[in-house]
C-alpha cells in the first residue's frame, strides 16, 4: 500500500485546462508537476497529497486511508486552499506567482508560475567558491524584498532553504514552495511527522507554534546564508538547544568575508527568537549597511541600485544568470 501512496498523475493527463507533462518533485505533503495550459504556456502545478493520510491507486482520485484521518485531511485541504488564495494576491518579482487554484480528484491544486533556472542548492553544490560577499548580500537583499511582501500579507513561509530559492536565467532569486499549510496540518495532527527541514527550521517550529513569526523565517534565511558561506547545513535547531555545536563560520569559510557579514548570519541564527532580527526589513538594512551604498537613500532605492548591478553580466549574480541561460539551452529538464 505504501508504494501507492504517492503515485503521481500520469504524463499527458488532462487536469481541467492543463496537460500534465511530467512530475518535477515529490514530497510527503505534495507533488509538483510541469504542465501546459491551453495556450502551451508552461506552469508548475502543486497537488495536495499528504502521503500519511491518503492513497492513490490506479485512478486519479485520492482516497483517505482511514476514517480517523478524514478530519485531518480536510483541515489540511482548507489550509492549502487558503494559502493558495492568499498567495494569489501577492505579485512580487521575488515570490513565485500563484495563477490559479481549484479542486479536482478529491484534492486541491495550486497553479504557479513555472520558473526556469536552478536552485540555490544547485549553485552551492557546483559554484560555492564563487559566492563572494557581494553576491550573498545582494541576493538575500532581493529575496528579503519578497519576504517583506509575504509578511505584510500576514503569511509566513516556514520552509526557506536553498532548495526553495531559485535563481532565474536572469539572475533573479525567487522564493518557492511555502510550508505554512504543512505547518498548520502537522500542528493540528501531532501524530503526523512535522515537515520542517532540519538545519533551517527555527527552534519554535519544533514545539512553540505560538512563538512563530517573521523571526522564524529570518532564522531560515540566516541558515541559507550560512550554507552559502560554509557549503554545509547548520546543526538542527532542536539539537543546538540540547548541545550547541554549530560550527563557527570563520573556521568554515573558504573566502574572505567581513566580520560584519559573519555577525549578521550569527544574529539570524540566535536560538532565542527575541534575539534575532524581528523583521525582514531589519535584516535587509543590516545587509545593506556595508554594501557601498549611499546612506542617505532608502532601502528600496539601494535595492534598485543593486538591481542594476545584478543585471550586469560582470557581477557574480548576473554571471550566474548568463551561465544558466547557456545551461538551460542545453535542456536541463
Write the layout of secondary structure elements.
Elements: E1 14-15, E2 18-26, E3 30-36, E4 42-48, E5 54-55, E6 63-64, H1 70-87, E7 98-104, E8 107-113, E9 117-119, H2 120-127, H3 133-152, E10 165-168, E11 173-175, H4 180-188, H5 214-230, H6 237-242, H7 249-252, H8 259-268, H9 280-289, H10 299-311, H11 316-328
Helix pairs in contact: 1-4, 3-9, 5-8
Question: What this model shows, in words?
Answer:
This protein is α+β, with helices and mostly antiparallel strands and 333 residues long. It is built from 11 helices and 11 strands. The strands form 3 sheets. The chain has a 6-stranded antiparallel beta sheet with strand order 1-2-3-4-8-7, with helices on one face. It has a 3-stranded antiparallel beta sheet with strand order 9-10-11. Residues 1-5, 293-299, 308-315 and 320-333 have low confidence and may be disordered.
**What oligomeric assembly is this protein in?**
single chain
Q: What overall form do the CA principal axes indicate?
A: globular
E-strand count = 11
**Helical content band:** 25-40%
Low-confidence stretches: 1-5, 293-299, 308-315, 320-333
| Percentage of β-strand residues | 15-25%
Average pLDDT over all residues: 82
Radius of gyration: 20 Å
Strand order across the largest sheet: 1-2-3-4-8-7
- Look at the helices and sheets and give the structural class: alpha+beta
Query: From N to C, what is the helix and strand string?
Result: EEEEEEHEEEHHEEHHHHHHHH
Distance between the termini: 30 Å
Largest sheet: 6 strands, antiparallel
The number of helical segments is: 11
Amino acid at each position: 500500500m505504501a508504494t501507492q501512496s504517492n503515485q503521481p498523475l500520469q504524463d499527458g493527463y488532462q487536469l481541467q485546462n492543463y496537460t500534465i507533462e511530467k512530475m518535477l518533485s515529490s514530497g510527503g505533503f505534495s507533488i509538483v508537476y510541469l504542465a501546459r495550459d491551453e495556450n502551451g504556456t508552461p506552469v508548475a502545478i502543486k497537488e495536495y497529497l499528504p502521503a500519511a493520510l491518503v492513497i492513490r491507486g490506479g485512478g486519479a482520485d485520492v482516497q483517505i486511508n482511514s476514517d480517523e484521518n478524514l478530519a485531518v485531511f480536510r483541515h489540511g485541504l482548507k489550509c492549502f486552499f487558503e494559502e493558495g488564495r492568499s498567495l494569489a494576491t501577492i505579485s512580487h518579482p521575488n515570490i513565485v506567482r500563484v495563477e490559479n487554484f481549484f479542486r479536482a480528484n478529491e484534492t486541491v491544486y495550486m497553479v504557479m508560475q513555472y520558473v526556469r533556472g536552478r536552485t540555490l542548492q544547485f549553485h552551492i553544490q557546483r559554484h560555492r567558491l564563487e559566492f563572494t560577499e557581494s553576491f550573498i548580500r545582494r541576493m538575500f537583499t532581493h529575496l528579503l524584498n519578497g519576504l517583506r511582501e509575504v509578511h505584510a500579507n500576514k503569511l509566513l513561509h516556514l520552509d526557506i532553504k536553498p532548495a526553495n530559492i531559485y535563481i532565474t536565467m536572469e539572475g533573479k532569486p525567487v522564493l518557492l514552495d511555502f510550508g505554512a499549510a504543512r505547518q498548520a496540518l502537522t500542528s493540528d495532527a501531532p501524530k503526523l511527522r512535522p515537515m520542517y527541514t532540519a538545519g533551517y527550521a527555527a527552534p519554535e517550529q519544533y514545539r512553540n507554534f505560538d512563538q512563530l513569526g517573521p523571526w522564524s523565517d529570518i532564522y531560515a534565511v540566516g541558515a541559507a546564508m550560512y550554507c552559502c558561506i560554509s557549503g554545509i547545513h547548520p546543526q538542527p535547531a532542536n539539537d543546538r538547544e540540547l548541545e550547541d555545536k554549530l560550527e563557527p563560520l570563520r573556521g568554515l569559510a573558504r573566502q574572505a568575508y567581513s566580520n560584519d557579514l559573519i555577525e549578521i548570519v550569527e544574529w539570524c541564527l540566535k536560538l532565542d527568537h527575541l534575539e534575532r532580527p524581528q523583521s525582514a526589513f531589519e535584516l535587509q538594512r543590516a545587509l545593506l549597511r556595508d554594501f557601498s551604498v549611499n546612506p542617505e537613500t532608502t532601502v528600496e532605492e539601494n535595492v534598485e541600485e543593486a538591481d542594476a548591478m545584478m543585471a550586469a553580466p560582470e557581477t557574480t549574480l548576473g554571471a550566474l544568470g548568463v551561465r544558466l541561460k547557456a545551461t538551460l539551452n542545453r535542456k536541463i529538464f
